[in-house]
Specification:
The complex is a heterodimer of chains A (145) and B (108). With 145 residues, chain A is mostly beta strands. Chain A has a single domain, classed as Sandwich (Jelly Rolls), CATH 2.60.120.40. In chain A, strands 1, 2, 4, 8, 9, 11 and 12 form a seven-stranded antiparallel sheet that branches. In chain A, strands 3, 5, 6, 7 and 10 form a five-stranded antiparallel sheet that branches. In chain A, strand 5 and strand 6 form a beta hairpin. Chain B is an alpha+beta fold and 108 residues long. The chains are: A mainly beta (145), B alpha+beta (108). Chains A and B meet through strand 2 and strand 3 of A and helix 1, strand 3 and strand 4 of B. Strand 2 of chain A pairs antiparallel with strand 3 of chain B, so a sheet runs across the interface.
């Protein structure tokens, strides 16, 4: 095991990379049953050879009872949470809002620039994600060091 | 085919779903050009994603029209179905990009 002493030339003193997107300019909807980019929810950061955490915080609903909304992430266009993603079902009422926080952690990335995107889809109907001045959406990425 | 276009729309008096449905109607949403699944196993010809920006910013549309047919990808395991249950199909009459833009502009 390498011993790292402060002041050592090999000690990584740079701050962890991070990025975030806060949207408050208007809601987002989709009717896509295949994963599509959640427009605007894209972050490019330059990391060391380290893993990252990625997450979103959203208020969503679907106007079709029984229709899923699935959320996934890509890092450099590679899906991170299976081929489908993390699922929220609209199961009681079309007026019910759901607080979802899709998230995950990568394996160690190669050192360099990486683009992380949020994707989503619906099983049917129209998915609506709140991103207005009253209920903003947030998407963020943190390098782990 | 993916068409991205911006149109000034004021949808403050309606829900996002209602605004989306209004846009679907303008685009000619029908059984022959199905852009929204009304059941999980519908056959779809495309989809519409919208950023409903508040004024003075325009709404931003991303319309995808499927150019090739794709079977469902759904799998059921232990009683749970995941993946896509809808069928994707190229419409019998493929619209042009300009067709779709012209239809969106009727919303302005």
């Amino acid at each position: 095991m390498a011993t790292v002493i402060r002041g050592d030339d090999n000690f990584d003193t740079s701050a962890p990379a991070y990025g975030r997107v806060v949207r408050t300019s208007g809601n987002i909807s989709t009717t896509s049953t295949s994963l599509v980019d959640l427009t605007g929810h894209s972050i490019t950061i330059t990391t060391g050879a380290n893993p990252i955490n990625f997450a979103g915080c959203y208020t969503v609903r679907n106007n079709t009872i029984g229709a899923d909304m699935s959320f996934n992430f890509t890092i450099d266009n590679a899906l991170q949470v299976g081929t489908n993603g993390q699922v929220q079902d609209q199961h009681d009422s079309t007026s019910q809002w759901n607080l979802v926080s899709p998230q995950g952690q990568s394996a160690a990335l190669s050192a360099g620039s990486h683009t992380i995107k949020q994707q989503w889809k619906v099983g049917g109907g129209t998915g609506l994600l709140l991103a207005g001045t009253a209920e903003g959406s947030m998407f963020f990425v943190n390098e782990i060091k | 085919m993916i068409v991205t276009h911006e149109v000034m729309i004021d949808c403050t008096s309606m829900t996002g779903e209602e605004c989306s449905d209004l846009c679907l109607t303008a685009l000619g949403h029908s059984t022959d050009f199905n852009l929204k699944a009304s059941s999980l196993t519908d056959t779809l010809h495309g989809s519409v994603s919208i950023i409903h920006n508040d004024s003075p910013l325009p709404h931003i549309f991303s319309i995808e029209v499927y150019e090739t047919d794709e079977a469902p990808t759904a799998v059921t395991s232990h009683g749970v179905t995941t993946g896509r249950e809808s069928t994707l199909a190229r419409p019998a009459v493929m619209p042009t990009e300009q067709d779709l833009i012209n239809k969106l502009e009727t919303l302005a």
